[in-house]
Amino acid sequence: MVMAWRRFGAVVAATLAGWECPADAQRAGENAVTAAEDAFGTSIGRETIGLYSSGSVRGFSANAAGNARIEGLYFDPVWQPNARMRRSLTIRVGLSAQGYPFPAPTGIVDYALRRPGNAPSGSFYASADTYGSLAMELDGVLPITDTLSVAGGGGLYRNSFYNDTEGKQHIEGVTALWRPTPAIEIQPFWGRSDIYDDEFGPNFVPGGSFLPPRVRRRLFLGPQQPKYRSTAVIYGSLASFEIDENWRLRAGLFRTFFDDRLTGANLLLNLQPDGRARQLFIVNAPSRLASTSGELRLTRRFTDGPRLHQVHLSLRGRGRRNRFDGAAVIDLGATTIDRPVPPLGPNFIFSQQSVDEVRQWTGGIAYEGRWRNVGELGVSLQRTDYSKTVSRPGLPPVETESSPWLYSVAAAAYLTDRLALYAGYTRGLEESGVAPASAVNRNEPLPAILTSQRDAGFRWTIRPNLRLVAGLFDVRKPYFERDAGNRFTLLGEVRHQGIEASLTGQLTPRLNIVAGAVLLRPRVTGEGVDLGRVGRRPVGQPTRLLRFNADWRPPQLPGVSLDLGVVHTSRRPATRDNLVSLPARTLVDIGGRYAFRLAGNNASLRLAVTNLFNVYGFDLRGSGAYDIIPGRVALASLAVDF
């Protein structure tokens, strides 16, 4: 594969020399620090910064809460739009989330798709790192007619990881933009990712209230077989119809699925401080998780002097089907953390599989009012109809249903042209999964849970290109755990109270910063804590998360920018009983860019080092289950626009 990539790279380099670079270069100018509006989460191209991600906003998953959007419309993300079709990913919390009708607790995750322009253009990207990973990407825009343009791209990847596992991947994506009339816009899209020959690294599960012993990085001891294989696909379309100057109709329909042809888990159980353990390898039967989702929204706009009013009528729906279970468990017996494992298989005997199906329809009405230089008000009311059915081999199907009213209210006041205050309350519905296999009610579908969020804060524009946002939040959700009879049931409430802050913009004309902090007070209350089955703090939640990124352009070096990233995470519980914690750690990344011209085209060379001081530590893979974090890695990349 490496030789093939070299030949492909030579062809691309030769092709680049014959192109003229348009003014709107695509990849060479990508920079998440200069593009970020705040410190809460931004992804541009291959760069991601910020306090939050789609899987963790204020300590909870925004995707699980139903807060994923594609261009503002509801989306159920089995798999997310990939970078070949996605322009950006942004996390919206507090004041920045108030422009989105029908929110749910945590925050909004909004995916913006690439919008093909009217001029042909392209970009080439290649990278390599000291672990041996290689990447090559090619993207382009092609106008077909005056009203139709297409953008697409593909990527080839050889991935090599901190535990010396390796895998291969290719990703493709296409979007089109069609404007048959000035009032109608249709944007279909398609994306796919294939992972193959991906090896299974170990997860470490200690046999007591202690962390795993030190594990050497870049040491893979097998098994070489079996290997992970999966295919993920997303496709759909957005449509917008400006009926007249006051009425707008928008629609989005999305289909996404994840086919795992072979998955597994490599577990070192009852791990002792001296490195002894029992090794268990679990091979899962082919599984499939698929979802169809979307939203139809009609908006009426009307003005009243300096006031703008909008009323939204919305119908959302989703259907999700998950075929899962069916495992072959291979007990490899006693081992140590440095003992090789021979290949396994290739023939495995799987148990029967189960099917989990969700159907949900939600209708709602929302009002948004904006009074110029005075403030904003947003109110929404929804009624949702939710049902979930779980079918297990040899058992009758079990169903759970819920049809609650959901609502939200948010307001902002502009005290001056530079200072705004905001506050809001939101109620949502969220899935809670099924009872674990170790409970007496194993695999029983759990009821959907009602969640709530309160937040308030301010935004201060210190100067036009420097902004401070800070606020308080309080997110509450029911908490499931085993009771005295080992039944997995509702035993209390998990509550995340905290302070979040963001300072973003230009400190000087040559220095951009993105600085953020979250001070969190996560707590579990109720019978589970009283019984001693869980501690008072939820697993994996730090009380302090600090992040700082800077991009500096030295005046003595035209075209050069230097960047710094620092992330500090405080001590956090690693087990449900809170007897083991991951220690606090601080990771430092450095890098630099050089913008130049290559064969008449805009180009950018980037060098970066992550985990500069080679800090050692563990990440959680569940309560009491661990994996090591990556060490120091150097990366070099080249982006060229043509």
Characterization of the model:
By secondary structure, this protein is mainly β. Helix content is 4%, strand content 60%. The protein is built from 3 helices and 36 strands. A hairpin with a 2-residue loop joins strand 26 and strand 27. Residues 1-25 have low confidence and may be disordered.
Structure in a nutshell:
The protein has 642 residues and is mostly beta strands. 4% of the residues lie in helices and 60% in strands.
Low-confidence segments: 1-25
Terminal CA distance reads 26 Å
Radius of gyration: 25 Å
Structural class: mainly beta
Helix content: under 10%
Percent in strands: over 45%
**Number of DSSP strand runs:** 36
Q: How is the biggest beta sheet arranged?
A: 22 strands, antiparallel, barrel
Q: What number is the mean pLDDT?
A: 91
Instruction: Give the overall shape, derived from the CA principal axes.
Output: globular
Q: Number of helical segments?
A: 3
